[in-house]
Amino acid sequence: MAKGLAEEVSMFKCKQCQGTEFQLVLQANVQGQVTVSANPFNEVVVTVGEQEFIADLMFMNQFAVCKDCGGIKCWAYFFREPVSAM
User: Fold this and answer.
1) Element (H, E) at 77
2) CA angle, residues 66, 32, 39, in degrees to nearest 5
3) Inter-CA distances, 49 with 26, 30, 34, 35, Å
């Protein structure tokens, strides 16, 4: 059984349908609560228990399913607003 979480916050876009909403499909034995949020740079931040990391393209293609079309291994980077260098 997989644990899933849907989010509207994304820096990724589905190459099949252009959707940005996804569902994470993780192993059922993941310890701790799984949450997904965005940081000030609109990066996807995944928190599992006390561990936190920024999702990259490899992570998305391994664990994310497009909520709109059900596509897997279909993600590309997508930034809603340009991130300026400081």
Assistant:
1) strand 75-77
2) 55
3) 14, 9, 7, 9
Res. 6: pLDDT tops 50: no
Q: How far apart are CA 65 and CA 68, in angstroms?
A: 9
For every residue of 54-70, DSSP letters joined together read E--HHHHHHHEEETTT-
CA-to-CA separations, 6 to 22, 24, 38, in angstroms, rounded = 6, 7, 13
Q: When comparing pLDDT for 11 and 68, which is higher? A: 68
pTM: 0.74
Q: What is the chain's Cα-based Rg? A: 13
Q: How far is CA 21 from the centre of its chain?
A: 8
Query: Per-domain residue ranges for the chain?
Result: 2-77
Length of the chain: 86
Residue 49 is given by DSSP the state T
Q: Is the pLDDT of residue 3 over 60?
A: no
Can you give the pLDDT at residue 9?
56
